[in-house]
What does this fold into?
Amino acid sequence: MDLSLGLSGVLGIRYCGFVSYVCEEVLLQPEKAASRVRFRAILWPLVIWEGLKRGWRPRSRSESPQRILVIAYLLLGDVIMLSGLLKALRQRYPYAAINIAVPPAVLPLFSERPWQVDAVAISPRHPATLSALCRFAPPDLAVIAGDNRYAWIARALGAGWIVGHRDPPGHFHALALDEAIPYPEVACAQTDLLAALAGSGEFDPYAVGEWPSPACPPFEKPDSPFVVLHVGASRALKRWPARHWRTLAELLRGRGYSVVWSCGPGEQALLDEIGSTGVRYAGNLALTQLWHLLACAQAIVCPDTGVAHMGRLLGRPTCVLVGPADVRLVGNGRFWSDMPCLWLNISVPCRDQPRVFDRPLLWSASCRRPDSGCHDHRCLQDLSVEQVLRAFSSLTP
It folds into this structure.
């Protein structure tokens, strides 16, 4: 009786999840759902075909891979935090052809081939990107950054050896890996954590210029010198209150700084709420244009978002306002140790969901709640203007 009730409960949860998927993905977003179906219609036959071709032959890791593929379907900031991995791979395999598969929106940043890495677009919403990858020769080594579901792409491409981080027991996608590397047991930055996937703990810290500036369309830049206040972030839990931004801008102007406002596409309302005056880029810059704007800035103040990581790449003094994340994870660590970047937060007890890429990381103090699951946003509401101003002053003497 208990067994049947437990089984029915599990099936009920699965059924509810299926209904939720149908409602959200199929009924509300039919084009998105259709594109994912087409992507999988290409992917799984290739996975099966490659498995049949290989048969029962044991897989082995090449000591000197000639072709390496990093699959990183991640947000902008997470892709930039792969810099340590890319540099570690290049240092360990100096003569290998290294490719990285990233979301189409991030692709322009790789136009000048940092660490001689070539980028290609990949997206489950665009089946043609998988077809494009199939035109490459099978990689000798595939490295999966973040979500192991993309390890099946490496299988479909006939990768010789597939490395990723270890999932908890019972995860289906872990079956696609040949080598599962556990998370570290001591605190470290996410960039260093990802660099360990290269198979070597040795890498030199980042130096400005190792990621060359991408070309960008011309745009009107503000007169120098100026400070960029980037107010946008992907989630409400990562956004500093409008009143704080307004006060900070007034204090910076009082010190003689020219303030330039910035936000991402669709975030103009954030600038309107602040009542920002002067030069403002309300989501109208391409990613490469934003890069060149930040490169000209005296300093940057922004939430924990992709702009913060671009500031590190550029070596610009950057104050980062951290909300739900663990500062030890998003902070500089070994790889970014020489960059003038300060990560600011306050201590709150509700950073009690220690997970990274949906895997447990017991030493971390993070919050994974959705925006609707937090009602006071203390982690950023209580981060004071005075604390930010002190950090800013220490970076810009």
